[in-house]
Structure formats: structure tokens, C-alpha cells
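# step 3/5: fold
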Amino acid sequence: MPVNKPEETAGRRRITVAMIARNEEGSIGLVINDIKRVVPEAEVLVVDSSSDRTAEIAESLGARVIRQYPPKGYGPAMDCALRSSSGEVVVTMDCDGTYPAESIPLLASMVLGEGYDLVDGSRLEKKSEAMPWPNYLANLGFALLASLLFFRRFTDLHSGMRAYRKSMIDRLSYQPRGAALPVELLLKPVRMGYKVKVVYIDYRQRIGVSTMQPLSSAWWTLRRILAVRFGRT
């Protein structure tokens, strides 16, 4: 049986590239153009909570924009993006230029062509120059804790670039409220026995200023790890 290249496998099936945005007018155009260059057949979906021209720019480039204003936070916005996607596979990215659009076909093909339910794009094969040392060490520490609790090696619980099988998302129950939702979106499918794969991706310097709140993110990360490990699925 011939082996399809990732681009060929991904291109035959419907892909949604889903992103959430808040005041990303300086980068949204570059990111959408990169996506369209790599996967021109994909639906581009943006859940936008901006007060600037982000939504206008995204719509002018052909993206489907869902307005969520006033902002409800990262979790509700990502939940809306995942639930509203029309593709059979949903590839999530950030709008700040940190994730490589070139990795979309590979991640999508592993869901569409290789049977994985979730493909996690880990940023931590090694330390990226774009990731500050405190963030890197915190990510390593939480990944080690999760590895010990779930008896499976994790390297990056917080990656914003993943490919999810949409039918899995439709069956998945999670808590969208609060920070660090990607932690639960990774650990819960693992605990439920879904087929999960990790691949390493590049991580680049962001365009614009980060709005992450480190203490809140750390608290919610620990909370989600323990809730998935010791709670009910």
C-alpha cells in the first residue's frame, strides 16, 4: 500500500485551523496568510475578543470570525473555537506568530491518516530561545508531575498547537472556566484511553506583549492535573 505524504493526506479531508484572539492586529494577518499558504483548503476560524481591528483583518483574509465580546477569558474562547469548528480535525494555534504553520499538515495527517485522536505539538524537545527560563522550568516541573501521576511521559502540558479529532472533542467533557485549559485537553483524553501522539515543533518569538498571568496559570495547572488524575472522567 503506498504511503501518503502528510500534505496529501491532510489535503483530501476537511481541516479547521482554530485560533482565539484578543488585540492581535499586529500579527493576525501574517499568521492567517501563513496558514493559507500551507493549507489553502482549510477553514480558518477565529474567536475574537478584541477592541482593535483584529476581527476586521481576519475577515478580510477569509477567516470565519466569531465575536466574543466583552471578553470571557481564554478557556471559554477556546471552548467556543473547538465546539464551533466544522472540520473533521481541528488544529489549534495562537495568533501571535509563535507556532509554525508549516507543522499543520503533519499534525492533521496523523489524525486523518494514522488514526490518532489527538496530536500534541510539544515545544520542549529542548529549550527554545523564545521561551523565558521561568516559563521553561515551570513547564518542565508540571510535565514531570503529570508524568509521575499518569505513568506516561509528558514534556509540554501547555502547548497551544495541537490537532484534535472533532468527534473526540464533541464527546469530551471539560471545564472551560479558568486558566491552563490545554492541560485538561491533553490529560483527559489520555486518561480516557484515546490515542494520543506527541511530536516536537518549533517555538518562535511572539509578536506583541504576552497577557499570561503566571501565578493564576500555575494554580490552574496544578488544579487541572489533580482533578483529571483523581476525579471522574
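# step 4/5: annotate
Confidence is low (pLDDT under 50) at residues 1-13.
# step 5/5: archive (pending)
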